[in-house]
Design goal:
This protein is an alpha/beta fold. The strands form five sheets. Strands 9, 10, 11, 12, 13, 14, 15 and 16 form an eight-stranded mixed β-sheet that branches. It has a two-stranded antiparallel sheet with strand order 1-2. It has a two-stranded antiparallel sheet with strand order 3-4. Helix 1 links the parallel strand 5 and strand 6. The N and C termini lie far apart (72 Å).
Length: 376
């Protein structure tokens, strides 16, 4: 049995147990000198076979031997201050880190993400292999697109989407744990539509096959209006699923939307992917969708930057698209102009839509009325 050791001084900030343990509490930027976290590490001892053992059990008889716990080291109001943020990070590096009594003493940081370079961001970037990251986003999306709220008794999926729409910076940073710069985003607005306008258009597809291990295969069907060049998104597929899954899904999407011409990037196996999609379409009895594959040779960063204005001005999304395709919405709303972006699949597909605008206009032109009669 362990209880508070009444023979020693105990306060709200410092108290001890009869088993020799204790707790010391201090503000992160307060006075913490003279105290150490965890059991003191004994000297290294010889192990069988020679050499020294510097790895220690967790205290006597393998019991927990203490930890250094940091809870909310910075306030939301201070997170946008470079001076305060740098001070917190420097304090951890120069003072807090040295407060452990053993190399085996764990350091646990509990906080909501507030900035790209908050303490968690600072450590993840500088020491990526040294930290175990437990990330709990308020809104989680399964690979099949199903959404779940982390704590439904607090926020429903619908309420989280309203928060996302009202305060995208706060939602992505503090609720989703995906810090997003207030300035420097590549896309800041998105056009929406309720119904397709009257006019002549060609139904096209652009597919960006995944070119890195973390990227999705991104494929988008859209109606490109003749004359204006405006592009109205009809459907979108974005998934890290295998080729065996993505090829038939994309083929079904193209057939459903009546795609006339599909442009598929042939980089990194894209040629084989394009042939597979064409074969899947033919098995469905679709003999009107023309598959075009090509090698994308342009500099990706330059392409994305140069087309950003036209992506925002010339592309229209169906109203409610962020709920329908949350994976795409999150990546687009957090994509930055400079610096490293974890995923560029969706932005690259939209850039391709703009680049292919009005190319191949010689294919059979469908009118809005015809498409609605045939495919709706």
């Amino acid at each position: 049995n362990v209880s508070v050791d009444c023979t020693r001084k105990n306060t709200t900030k410092e108290w001890y147990t009869t088993a020799g343990g204790g707790l010391y509490v201090a503000p992160f930027r307060g006075q913490i000198t003279g105290f150490g976290a965890g059991a003191v590490e004994p000297e290294e001892r010889e192990i069988d076979g020679g050499g020294l053992d510097g790895h220690l059990p967790d205290g006597p008889a393998g019991r927990f031997a203490g930890a250094l716990v940091i809870d909310d080291p910075i306030k939301p109001d201070d997170a946008q201050s470079d001076r305060v943020r740098d001070h917190v990070n420097e304090l951890f590096d120069t003072t807090i880190r040295s407060r452990v009594n053993s190399r085996s003493t764990p350091v646990i940081i509990i906080m909501q993400r507030l900035h790209e370079d908050d303490l968690c961001g600072h450590l993840i970037r500088r020491e990526p292999g040294d930290w175990t990251v437990l990330k709990l986003p308020a809104l989680r999306t399964d690979p099949d697109g199903t959404e779940h709220a982390l704590w439904e008794h607090m926020h429903t999926v619908e309420e989280l989407h309203r928060l996302w729409e009202d305060t995208p910076f706060v939602f992505l940073t503090q609720y989703q744990q995906e810090p997003t710069p207030k300035e420097g985003l590549l896309y800041t607005r998105f056009n929406e539509y309720d119904t397709l306008p009257v006019g002549d258009y060609i139904v096209k597809n652009y597919t960006d096959t995944a070119d890195t291990g973390s990227d999705d295969c991104a494929s988008v069907d859209y109606a490109e209006f003749i004359g204006t060049g405006e592009c109205y998104i009809l459907d979108l597929y974005a998934s890290p699923a295998s080729v065996e899954t993505s090829v038939p899904e994309i083929a079904r999407m193209m057939d459903r939307d009546g795609v006339e011409v599909a442009n598929i990037e042939s980089n990194n196996g894209g040629h084989i992917f394009a042939v597979s999609v064409r074969e899947a379409l033919r098995r469905m009895g679709n003999d009107f969708t023309r598959i075009e594959w090509f090698t994308q040779r342009g500099n990706k960063e330059a392409r994305l930057t140069n087309t950003a204005d036209r992506v925002q001005n010339m592309i229209y999304w169906p109203r409610g698209w962020e709920t329908r395709w949350p994976r795409a919405a999150q990546r687009l709303r957090s994509f930055r102009k400079e610096g490293r972006n974890a995923h560029d699949d969706i932005p690259d597909a939209l850039t391709g839509v703009i680049e292919k605008r009005e190319s191949g206009a010689g294919w059979t032109m469908r009118t809005g009325t015809y498409m609605r009669d045939k495919y709706d």
